[in-house]
From TrEMBL:
<dbReference type="InterPro" id="IPR012685">
    <property type="entry name" value="CHP02304_F390_synth-rel"/>
</dbReference>
<dbReference type="InterPro" id="IPR053158">
    <property type="entry name" value="CapK_Type1_Caps_Biosynth"/>
</dbReference>
<dbReference type="InterPro" id="IPR042099">
    <property type="entry name" value="ANL_N_sf"/>
</dbReference>
<protein>
    <submittedName>
        <fullName>CoF synthetase</fullName>
    </submittedName>
</protein>
Amino acid sequence: MNGLAEAAGSFTLTRWVSRKSRADFERWQAAALRRFLDRDLPQAPFYRKPPARLADLPVTDKALLMARFEDFNIHGLTATDAWAAQADDGRAGALTIGASTGTSGNRGLFVISEAEKYRWLGAILAKAAPDLLWRGMRVAVILPQNTGLYDSARKSRLVKLAFFDLTVGPESWRAALEAFDPTVIIAPPKILRHFASESFRLRPKRVFSAAETLDPVDRPVIEDFFRLPLDQIYMATEGLFAVTCRQGGLHLAEDSVFFEFEPAGEGLATPLVTAFRRQTQIMARYRMNDLLRLSKEPCRCGSPLRCVDEIVGRMDDVFRLMSQDGPILVTPDVLRNAVLKADRRIDDFRLVQTGPDSVELRLPPMLADDAAAAAHQAVRALLEMRKTAATVKLIRAPLPLETGRKLRRVECRLGRAR
């Protein structure tokens, strides 16, 4: 297998598809999806035979995949063996094993082949930085854990990649990062904001927020520091799902994933994903836990791929409360906006549902008392308007940078959403 040839082919295909009309793209996607259903999906023991239509397949999720891991990958690799490989060198023979960081305490596994790893590299380069590739790129990836996905980039003469371990803290690798002088930075928004607050000496040409929800309050701070537009890479254990184009549109990766959407209320949707270019671990009609606000308009860049206006958060962090009219759900974006719109001086907070009818609002001590009071009242008023009896406790405490877990400004601690 020629890895760089796989990457080049994927790069070319990704760029070629992006120039199609929407109608032509949908015809191409339908044919690619049909090939996947006929050729690749039946290789997994869970399925065994091709369906007449995608809609004939059952909806799957992380709990099912982890319980029957060996039935969803074509090599029969068990979850026990995959965890052991992941804890060692991340390899099981010729396969690469990776794991999520477990945003909600529920870690997931993925397994991919060498060819798939290089296809991923070609696709992400085509989407994120095709104009920088030919000049040579120094890419700094700052995440809680390394995965074998990035090994493929290290074998290209056009890309120099350095991984910086978020869990050991930025103070341990600040000098190395500044010396690397990256042209592209991929990092969670809380770290990009930390770079701004600590005046890191960096001068990238492209900056991507990844691995966490990008809250509106972080964007202006990061963009002002780098003097660049902040782009996004929407990626999870389950695959690459969206990348920002040069016109600022966050495009779904419909050239490798077929998306179905389930309404989640408040104009939001949760995706069911079918990764039709994956052949090792089959992902079909897999229910994601994310809340998306889809764009109603095509992007001005001309790509046929649909756009997402906002990745709002996760279903796990929807507040689940009782009201006079019965159980209600309050989504993270509504809660976040209540706090941020209360006073323009608020630029950080934590809002946590700690019990069936109890909420905590944490604000830093240096925030003016009247701003804290306004935020407290705004959350109380929102919940009263929704006819809940929930109490909101205001806590004034520091909000330190946490490198051992993902930042969730709005968080529900009642257990996994159903």
